[in-house]
């Protein structure tokens, strides 16, 4: 067991009581709580509709179907993301077309999108990575010019803002995830939000085995899935949502403390950068180790930190270099150089509500010593 895990959910009495109450009610699925969670979540993000699902991945899959993406289509997205944001494009038989990222925010570089567009391009799947928005103004302009849909992957960036506007309100739909390492959790779970009634209706049906719009018993109108959120998760989600602002504020404080202790070692480590248009909500704290020559050099640092009881992780491996992407699409090293450079030199540090200043000081001290002996 690591003394300092990479992530940890912030669970208190409220969540425990809420989960017990559901168990005592006997109403474990398709009860009232997922509906209440959806209503409150939509209100929080500022969309007309929210549809709870069993995971962020499930939500992304349904967003693709609802957008009408199908075999033969192409969708532009980021290679610097968790694999699910590209896989959901494959689920519907379409091709993920990657564009390289901006070296400040690690989000898709809008200046590289137009050259990736062709007649098959149907949508841009914008991933807001690590808690920070992508540069939405130019992305929206390009989408409008070429008549492309925007779908947002907000799985890592709940409540982040771009020019004061909440992410998840820019596209025709947006998807959130609640795995336990996220800013808020439902154990497993996700949420799709949209302002479009037509999208809501189809997603609401698809997640529940394709049932008819009025949800008549065993009347299945389309090929659907079991992507429902259960009531235990919804109860957890409601309890977590009520303290989301607090948890995000705590994450911001912890990130600032890491910055404070790391900044004096700026010849060794680059702290995360925030674009001036963005309000960052901190999914992870990812530093970039300077002068890293290879991925294996960075991985040695991760192993050495593990021996010191501090979990750190490579964040993130480049999607285009996973073997099945290489084999299927012919991607190779060198295709997206900025993604690859960040990917081989970045390191996520322990990051969760409850980390104290003394812990952060200790982790930074160990990290700096370790880097000094390997770089
Ligand atoms: C960017 C991104 N997209 C999609 C997902 C998938 O979410 P889930 O794990 O809930 O399926 C995640 C979760 O880690 C993510 O970080």
TrEMBL record:
The modification N6-(pyridoxal phosphate)lysine is found at residue 182. GO terms for molecular function: pyridoxal phosphate binding; transaminase activity. One of its GO terms (biological process) is polysaccharide biosynthetic process. Keywords: Pyridoxal phosphate. Coiled coil: none annotated. SUPFAM superfamilies: PLP-dependent transferases. InterPro entries: DegT/StrS_aminotransferase, PyrdxlP-dep_Trfase, PyrdxlP-dep_Trfase_major, PyrdxlP-dep_Trfase_small. It holds the Pfam family DegT_DnrJ_EryC1. It comes from the Bacteria. The active site is at residue 182. Belongs to the DegT/DnrJ/EryC1 family. This is Polysaccharide biosynthesis protein. It comes from Candidatus Yanofskybacteria bacterium RIFCSPHIGHO2_01_FULL_39_8b.
